[in-house]
Amino acid sequence: MDSAPPLSFDLPRGVPRDVDVPDEPLTAALDRAAATWPDRVALDFLGATTTYRALADRVARAAQVLLDLGVRPGDRVALALPNCPAHVVAFQAALRVGAVVVEHNPTYTADELAHQLADSGAVVALVWQKAVPAVLAGRDRTDVRTVVAVDLAADLPWRKRLALRLPVAKARRTRAAMQGPVPADIPSWHRLVAGARPLDPATPQPQAHDVALLQYTGGTTGTPKAAVLSHRNLVANAIQGHAWTGVAPGTEVVYGVLPFFHAFGLTLCLTYAVRVGATLVVFPSFDPALVVAAQRRRPGTFLPAVPPMLDRLVTAAESAGADLTSFTHAISGAMALPAETARRWEAATGGLVVEGYGMTETSPVALGNPLTPERRPGTLGLPFPSTEVRVVDQEDPTRDVDPATGGELLIRGPQVFQGYWQRPDETAAQLLPGGWLRTGDVVQVVDGSVVLVDRMKEMIVTGGFKVYPSQVEDHLRGMPGIADVAVVGVPGGAMGESVVAAVVLADDASGVDLAAVRAWCEQRLARYALPRRLVVLTELPRSQVGKVLRRVVREQVLAGGAA
Fold first, then answer.
1. Where are the alpha helices (DSSP H) in 259-306?
2. Mean per-residue pLDDT over the chain, rounded
3. Rounded CA gap, 467 and 362, in Å?
4. Model confidence, pTM
5. How distant, in Å, are the alpha carbons of 126, 143, 151 from that of 186?
6. What's the CATH number of domain 460-559, 1.10.260.40, 2.40.40.20, 3.10.180.10, 3.30.300.30?
């Protein structure tokens, strides 16, 4: 693999070709931030502020809580939490005691959570109150010995906590959205942390090579598997991101609208923000009205987002007469950035929005457009510092091809993951000799910039989330009235792609419509994976060996060739 040199690119002015990755754990960044900017606001959650000094103290107490719960170095600690200060504290505390964080979408079903908890072998789960019933429902299939409930409302400013107690409809609706019933024997995270002593500073720190994070991704098969990321992987990507943005430490205000349980949000909000001493404005979910309100209170400078968020924020700001000109830069990822979306954002802010590219397996950012007027909208951009790329034959990844013609993108760098958790065969298929990662994406190099041509994998990206057709198909095959099914993605406007279920009905089918299909899927699938359209076919196109040809199904759907 190392016989041909990696491709050469001209990086933006001021961006180093290589970065030094120190031999330190991820938690060292918080220690430095607390020492350098003790009184700087680290977190702003709907107006409740936490300084870096207070954050470090809370993390030290939370770390002791985890030790008291029996967590030891190498143990997996599951987080099933929305964005909130408790999420930031739990993430840092678990890492500080040498545990491995396992991030989960708190809106997953009981089956989805049980699968991931069992696969990771997590022993302690810190869970949003509303997700506690789902975790408890599948707990007997896991190694989880302790479930701790996290009350989202406990992180609110005290005035808003008091308002939740009012006997009015608005307060009841807010309580229902933020809180949920928890069995009496499930301890409260906030109470445990408040009553704990700080961790002994002499407690051994994790090492750079230690595993820090298990981040679940579907990969090529659609079967969720955990990417293993070390402290060094995550430290490297935060340093690379800082080199790319070039911001002065202690000046950034990052808006945390992306979910922290997603690789994109985790790195830009939980690791990069601390690395540069930023104030992180935390939002429990993406709500344009909340963002506009925060913009009046604490104007942002940097927004990591997916394209639909940018569009909705500009629309909300226009309606409310809000000023977005404090945002100097935004990074868009997870899906292609439409030119009109970029134009609207830059017109509203006067700043730049550029596209980045990466995977969970690259911590996740590997390429990006320059944060300069020389950016190339519609392209993936250039490799990050200390990141090498190749373009190889799709069938034979050991053979380099003309990058202008196109081929599969390979990536190598300090942010590339360690492999898949307990899946050596899949690791070997993805990580090639020499540390090269197969991305499964077909690219070309055009005028010195990497351009995405197509995805080798058949996953669907909707609203920044990945949907794996086989998972949706497997569930729908068990639905009465459906004889066969193929799931594909079609252009879906601002959402990127829409999930379409193409079905062949059984002879005795009745009551199979889109509403019924979505209701059936809600039993096991996340909301973003639910089909948005139902197409009925007389038969599914198949290859000579009987494999459904999703590409042909998609063409039929786009051509309107359905009964």
1. 263-265, 272-275, 288-297
2. 93
3. 19
4. 0.86
5. 11, 16, 12
6. 3.30.300.30
